[in-house]
């Protein structure tokens, strides 16, 4: 897939009023990705608020409560494209109580934009959002030092914030960090280069988003195909057809490849691969495909096709980092349903190993009371084995969610450490 046609999913995060929604509005506006009726509606709303220019933040703040309070309280998704690339943006809330929304918005992102107010520098939410981006395995960060117009476009202030973030991020596992000084309100260094910051010799934000390479971020070595459903059409011309449908989690599967089915251990080879009704010679992530095999193997939802010499770990007890999403505190004595890929099984939290202080990254082993938005390391026991990889290696087979069986609500997102 060429860079020009590839899709980039990115999320924006920062403290309240750092300008996330304005930045997205500026990206859409300056890249001419707004319909005329949308622009007219925003201009009308801006005039009602007594503003002389269009409030571009209204492009993402679609809920009435958001507009009344002037904050973003949910994850707002926007789609736009340039001649070089397609984009999906997740605009996430800034308040600390909405950390779980940040986890939701960033869970599928290739890149995260961290906004920092040039007047205030790094704050608690800067640390929290940067750590969550690292925890979620996002390999590309863009640190946008916003509101440079309010500090007279001072290079010294930008350099100071850049160094502060580098000192903090040295403890994070993020291989690619880019710094850009911007003014989302005025458009400096967002789509077009700033005339007010001649001292900055890098390109504007949109240029970086168009050019950043994320194709190599996918795991193409470890072949993992979790079976989602078994297709038996029962049609006269396809009475013997048995296909296994699902989404390729990682690796490249080719027609003729030798595979092994887990957990049964039965071996076979790939006969056909279909994307929709079209026959293909290979499948790669994140394609949704149907495979047929050369042997009649009893497979069902939750089973996995892999290579014999490269298998995931089969575990019933595992350590994981979790972000608690539930309104009620964690209760290690209760049983939760764990959903891992296409597998569901009962589980119990055996132990809270520590709770993490987001600001200092200090591990608190004394305070094991876990409430909403807390991040902790736990030990989990499952009723049946899970086929897992380390999250750093495979975001699909290395993650799970916990569900409260009483309410059927998702109460935690988990990220598996090396089994």
Describe the overall structure.
- The chain has 419 residues and is of the alpha+beta class.
- It folds into 3 domains: 3-217, Rossmann fold (3-Layer(aba) Sandwich), CATH 3.40.50.300; 224-306, Elongation Factor Tu (Ef-tu), domain 3, CATH 2.40.30; 313-416, Beta Barrel (Elongation Factor Tu (Ef-tu), domain 3).
- The protein contains 7 helices and 23 strands.
- The chain has helices spanning 20-30, 36-48, 64-69, 99-106, 124-135, 155-169, 205-211; strands at residues 7-14, 76-81, 86-91, 111-117, 140-146, 176-181, 224-226, 229-231, 243-247, 253-254, 258-262, 267-275, 278-280, 282-283, 288-293, 304-306, 313-324, 335-340, 343-356, 363-364, 375-388, 399-403, 410-416.
- Strands 7, 8, 9, 11, 12, 13, 15 and 16 form an 8-stranded antiparallel β-sheet that branches.
- The radius of gyration is 24 Å and the shape is globular.
- The protein starts with 6 loop residues before the first strand and ends with a strand.
**Poorly predicted runs:** 1-5, 62-73
Number of individual domains: 3
**CATH topology of the largest domain, what is it called?**
Rossmann fold
Helix content: 10-25%
Which architecture name of the largest domain does CATH use? 3-Layer(aba) Sandwich
Report how far apart the termini are: 33 Å
| Total number of helices | 7
The helix-and-strand class reads alpha+beta
């Amino acid at each position: 897939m060429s860079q020009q046609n590839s899709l980039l999913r990115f999320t924006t995060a920062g403290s309240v009023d750092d300008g996330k929604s304005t930045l997205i509005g500026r990206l859409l506006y300056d890249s001419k990705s707004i319909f005329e009726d949308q622009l007219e509606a925003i201009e009308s709303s801006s005039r009602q608020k007594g503003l002389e220019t269009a409030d571009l933040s209204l492009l993402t703040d679609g809920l009435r409560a958001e507009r009344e309070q002037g904050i973003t309280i949910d994850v707002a998704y926007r789609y736009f494209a340039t001649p070089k690339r397609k984009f999906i943006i997740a605009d996430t809330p800034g308040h600390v109580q909405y950390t779980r929304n940040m986890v939701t918005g960033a869970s599928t992102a290739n890149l995260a934009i961290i906004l920092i107010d040039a007047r205030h520098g790094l704050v608690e939410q800067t640390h929290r959002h940067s750590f969550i981006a690292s925890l979620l395995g996002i390999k590309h960060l863009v640190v946008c030092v916003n509101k440079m117009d309010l500090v007279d476009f001072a290079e010294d202030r930008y350099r100071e914030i850049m160094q502060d973030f580098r000192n903090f991020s040295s403890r994070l596992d993020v291989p690619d960090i880019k710094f850009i000084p911007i003014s989302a309100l005025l458009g400096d260094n967002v789509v077009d280069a700033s005339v007010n910051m001649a001292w900055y010799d890098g390109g504007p934000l949109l240029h970086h988003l168009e050019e950043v390479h994320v194709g190599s971020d996918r795991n193409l070595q470890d072949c993992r195909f979790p079976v989602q459903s078994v297709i038996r059409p029962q049609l006269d011309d396809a009475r013997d057809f048995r296909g296994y449908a699902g989404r390729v989690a990682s690796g490249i599967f080719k027609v003729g490849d030798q595979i092994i089915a887990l957990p049964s251990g039965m071996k076979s080879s790939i006969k056909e691969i279909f994307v929709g009704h079209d026959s293909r010679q290979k499948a790669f992530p994140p394609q949704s495909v149907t495979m047929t095999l050369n042997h009649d193997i009893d497979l069902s939802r939750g089973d996995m096709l892999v290579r014999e010499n490269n298998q995931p770990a089969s575990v019933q007890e595992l350590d994981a980092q979790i972000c608690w999403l539930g309104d009620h505190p964690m209760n290690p004595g209760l049983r939760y349903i764990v959903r891992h890929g296409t597998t569901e099984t009962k589980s119990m939290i055996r132990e809270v190993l520590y709770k993490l202080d987001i600001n200092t990254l200090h591990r608190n082993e004394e305070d094991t009371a876990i409430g909403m938005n807390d991040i902790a390391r736990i030990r989990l026991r499952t009723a049946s084995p899970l086929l897992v990889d380390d999250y750093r290696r495979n975001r699909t087979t290395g993650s799970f969610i916990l569900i409260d069986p009483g309410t059927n609500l998702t109460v935690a997102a988990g990220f598996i450490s090396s089994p």
